[in-house]
Queue: 2 jobs
Job 1
Amino acid sequence: MENPMDLKTLRIAAGTGTRTAPRPSPPRPPRPRQTGWFLKGPIPWTWLGRAMSLPGHALHVGIQLWFEAGLTRSKEVAISMTGMAKVGVTRYAASRGLKELEKARLVSVVRHAGRKPVVVILTAPALSAPTQPDAVNAAGTDDAVTSPDKKASDEESPLPPGELARCGE
């Protein structure tokens, strides 16, 4: 008698099987619509870093410039000094901030009497890394700390012997 649980009878013939579609991923929730005003980026971090280091309201003016540039899709904007009052900066402080940005070479400004200044946002040069001081030996000269013919242990240390052990050297 034939076994009813014979696996050979349950096998699908080659080439006749159907593929099943992969299971669809669960639907994502709808992305919320952007409401209100926002800054359009990217804003280079080197530019922001230089503006942050400037005195007064220079950073405030710089952020407003980037906002206006995002609205107009141009790096050349005419900025209203009295319009800066909307963000809490007086026109006098805005003028000083714009001069600081110009001194730092982050913007170039064309001014005409009785008209808004036309500002072009420039790319900030890369911030240079602080230079490392040259090695100075215990005698205070700028010779190499250890010369090839002299061992580090032969040199006199300005610290007492107990200090070296405490410093972990």
Note: The longest strand covers residues 107-110.
Job 2
Amino acid sequence: MDGQQQYCNVSNSYFFEKHDNDIYLRTVTDVIITLYIRPILTIFGLIVNTAFLFVLYRVPSMRTVTNFYLANLAIADAIFLLTNSWWFIWEYMSNVDLRATIYGSHINCTYLYKSTLYIIYMDYFASVNFISAVTTERYIALSQPLRHRNWSTKIRTISVVFLCWLLACFLACPVLFITYKPKSMCVAYQDSKAEIGYAIVRWTFCETRSCEWCGVSIGFLDLFQFSFALVSNAVMYFFIVKS
């Protein structure tokens, strides 16, 4: 079924099997999470992060190197929360019946879909970078206090922050090389509320058309950075607690 068809009927629809229903159809749990739990968590996260930034602004004595890293972590988390929540609500509004559905227009698939994915990954990588920066800064402060005093200058701190953001932007780059094209098809699934026993809807989504290595790369970078940060932070915190 191509995107030029205007109407969906029995003859041009793909019928979902039962296992397809379990994979693609939205459940009550999906709706509750998307429309209630995610927005609540997003609002709560924004309030907490904004409150932290406000305290830093109002209390000069709290403007330490560690809190400067935490401030950037709060900014990255706030952007991630907003973008991630917007992503799922956008997906839900595109089609309230089917999962993984985005308005399949050329502009959405080429620009909005790709840019949203990029921002989500960039903020995720940035958050991990700033968590590692905080851990490293605390480790040096406790294990090598004299070196920490010389190392924690304003210029170096700003440089570390800049590098954390730059690295995050670089690690998320494979998403920009993926080509998405709009695709539309008619699908039918069992629905006891429908008069004929099943519902027929148009399913529009952004389909990946090129750059298979990009998806593999972003997955590898995600796993590698998380694993490296987890191990290195655990080792440094072990020595921090031990000292």
Note: The CA atoms of residues 93 and 216 lie 29 Å apart.
